[in-house]
TrEMBL record:
Domain NTP pyrophosphohydrolase MazG-like: 27-100, 168-225
Enzyme class: hydrolase
Molecular function via GO: nucleoside triphosphate diphosphatase activity
Protein known as: Nucleoside triphosphate pyrophosphohydrolase
Organism, as annotated: Brevundimonas vitisensis
Keywords attached to this entry: Hydrolase
Pfam families named in the record: MazG (PF03819)
EC number: 3.6.1.9
PANTHER family xrefs: NUCLEOSIDE TRIPHOSPHATE PYROPHOSPHOHYDROLASE (PTHR30522)
SUPFAM superfamilies noted in UniProt: all-alpha NTP pyrophosphatases
Keyword Mitochondrion: no
Length: 261
């Protein structure tokens, strides 16, 4: 028995109403979905840290999520794991005519990307998804989805000519946010904050930057520099609570200098 077959058998046992795990038995697609997203992020985290042993483990966790969803679908007579794998095989072959078909195998990277988008557009049409934005998943992280929405719209010409116009819009949204904050309208401020973040995601897309990756890098940098502050204060036997903003800001600047050296 292959490891994949064994994993599927384990899943069947876990979901058995008589002898399975009560927690696994009561799960649904909706309750498992957050765990699926979490496991995908843990895969990305292992890659970011360059931990290949952890990556192997996290990929296993992600695979288990696929098996879990497939088993629940099989129980309802919808589809099974093999159907999932077959659908992926068909999709890969369909979307790579330059490899599996009679198109030019030496097609350039940019041309391949355009062809890929054309094929996906045809797939959307076959599913009666006629809107340009119809199949951009709602469940994506919001910044990532914003970038994908603007990218999709740009394919049909709805895009600013350059980053100059995006910066102009960015300044406009900042001004509108400040105005709503000054007016004390927190509901409007929340809306303007969303508009501001959307423009930031659009700017990232124009620059060829994945906004989720950029923010993840900024998060890591913040953690690293704040850790420097904590370490420096600990030398004096103190914690951040026993410091003040001026001192911690000075230590933050020292952390930036230390990173450059």
């Amino acid at each position: 028995m292959s490891p994949t077959e064994r994993l599927r058998d384990i899943m069947v046992r876990l979901r058995d109403p008589q002898v399975g795990c009560p927690w696994d038995v009561e799960q649904t697609f909706a309750t498992i979905a957050p765990y699926t997203i979490e496991e995908a992020y843990e895969v990305a985290d292992a890659i970011e840290r360059g931990d290949m042993n952890e990556l192997k483990s996290e990929l296993g966790d992600l695979l288990f999520q696929v098996v879990f969803h497939a088993r629940m679908a099989e129980e309802q007579g919808l589809f099974a794991y093999d159907d999932v794998a077959q659908a992926m095989c068909d999709k890969l072959i369909r979307r790579h005519p330059h490899v599996f078909g009679d198109e030019d195998a030496q097609i350039s990277g940019p041309a391949q990307k355009l062809r890929w988008e054309d094929i996906k557009a045809a797939e959307r049409a076959s599913k009666a998804q006629t809107g340009v934005l119809d199949d951009v998943p709602v469940g994506l992280p919001a910044l990532h989805r914003a970038a994908k929405l603007t990218k999709r719209a740009a394919r049909v010409g709805f895009d600013w000519p350059s980053t100059d116009e995006v910066f102009d819009k960015l300044h406009e949204e900042v001004a509108e946010l400040r105005a709503e904050i000054a007016a004390g309208d927190l509901d409007k401020a929340r809306e303007e904050m969303g508009d501001l973040l959307f423009v930031v995601a659009n700017l990232a897309r124009k620059l060829g930057v994945e906004p989720e990756d950029a923010l993840r890098g900024a998060n890591a940098k913040f953690v690293r520099r704040f850790g420097f502050i904590e370490a420096e204060l600990a030398r004096d036997g103190r914690t951040p609570e026993q410091s003040d903003l001026a001192e911690m800001d000075s230590l933050w600047d020292a952390a930036k200098v230390a990173e450059r050296s």
